[in-house]
Write a structure and sequence with these properties.
It is elongated and about 145 Å long. The protein starts with a helix and ends in a 6-residue tail after the last helix. It has one domain. It has a six-stranded antiparallel β-sheet with strand order 6-7-8-9-5-10. It has a five-stranded antiparallel β-sheet with strand order 12-16-15-14-13. 30% of the residues are buried. The longest helix is centred in the first third of the chain and has 32 residues. The chain is α+β, with helices and mostly antiparallel strands and 354 residues long. It has twelve helices and 16 strands. A hairpin with a 4-residue loop joins strand 8 and strand 9.
Length: 354
């Protein structure tokens, strides 16, 4: 043991110079790497930042060049487009008294209505306005609804020239039930019955002026349709239009066959040789206005046209709906049997007497 201690002591003494030398070298290296210290103050050297680069000035000849890639939207608008901020002003309703029988906001009324007057005064006013009365007929047995059929030479010629013979006469309804009168609008009927894109509206408007002059308090009816829709009007898809007339008889003795029959309430011979006549129906058929509205009963008596040895009627599904433009499907279903009944009675009236 003592021998080992001597050997370890001797080795340690021999290694001391080397250890001191390494320690000194390490201290010297740390001193060189650390900041200067004196009196517990640490001196830190902050490096000087680099100088900012000089900006490069860019000059362009076109000042809009920088916007060339901007997203731009077209300012084109559809024809007739009205900006939202202007719509309230543009849809301001036209006062009905300023445009009786005319087009208001693209729509036109089926009828002109006025305060009640009796039959004699209505006749007097029509004649004063230059019209001739063809007939008067009661729609019901109690006489609550009476229709005056009237025309003029100019109206008959206008109807024939435009191949719209059903336009050759107009109707005035005296309604004791609802206490007013109703007159069919000639411009409405002309647009519905004349099957071409344009026609001279001078005469229909002139007739409206004649009526306005001799009937006080006229207003446009609530029944109306879009004016441009009328030539191709149908109640719904698949239903008949004006052009889909129904031939109910043919032969060279059609006029002779209807003479003296109580169903025929008037006959109107036209300049082209055609004859327009009005038909009364059996009570059960003729009472259909009481189901869907007596205000529009001026569509009766039902018009029938004899032309070129053939007899035609407007399809009842068309004629009833165009004269009742506010008619709903549920209301139409309440008279579902009426169109067929009208067709059968129109065919029957031409049968020869035995």
């Amino acid at each position: 043991m003592n021998m080992l201690r001597k050997v370890f002591h001797t080795s340690l003494i021999a290694a001391m110079p080397m250890m001191l030398s390494a320690s000194a070298a390490t201290a010297t290296q740390e001193h060189a790497q650390s900041p200067k210290q004196s009196d517990n103050i640490v001196h830190i050297v902050i490096p000087k930042p680099p100088k900012a680069p000089t900006p490069v000035k860019v000059e362009t000849k076109n000042s809009n060049a920088l916007d060339s890639r901007a997203i731009k939207f077209s300012k084109r608008v559809p024809p007739g487009y009205i900006p939202p901020e202007q719509r309230k002003k543009s849809v301001k309703p036209t006062t009905s008294t300023n445009n009786i029988g005319g087009i208001n906001q693209e729509r036109i009324s089926t009828y002109l209505r006025a305060p009640f007057i009796d039959l004699q005064e209505a006749k007097k006013n029509l004649e004063a306005a230059g019209f001739k009365i063809i007939t008067q007929t009661a729609i019901d047995k109690k006489g609550k609804l009476t229709v005056l059929v009237f025309t003029s030479d100019a109206l008959e010629k206008f109807a024939v020239d435009n191949h719209a013979e059903f336009l050759a006469s107009l109707r005035l309804l005296i309604d004791k039930k609802d206490h007013h009168i109703t007159i069919t609008n000639p411009l409405y009927l002309a647009r519905a019955f004349i099957q071409k894109d344009d026609f001279d509206t001078t005469l229909p408007k002139q007739i409206i002026d004649q009526i306005k002059t001799h009937f006080n308090g006229l207003v446009n009816s609530k029944d109306k349709l879009k004016y441009t829709l009328l030539p191709n009007y149908r109640f719904m898809h698949g239903m008949p239009q004006y052009k889909d007339m129904v031939e109910v008889a043919q032969g060279d003795d059609l006029l002779q066959n209807i003479q003296g029959k109580k169903q025929v309430v008037f006959q109107q011979k036209l300049p082209n040789g055609a004859v327009l006549f009005g038909m009364k129906f059996r009570r059960r058929t003729e009472m259909f206005p009481f189901r869907i509205g007596t205000n529009n009963a001026a569509l009766l008596p039902y018009p029938v046209l004899i032309k070129d040895n053939k007899a035609y009627i407007m399809d009842p599904k068309y004629y009833i709906s165009v004269m009742y433009p506010l008619l709903k499907m549920s209301e139409f279903m309440t008279i579902a049997t009426v169109p067929d009944a009208i067709l059968k009675e129109a065919q029957h009236v031409f049968r020869k007497k035995k």
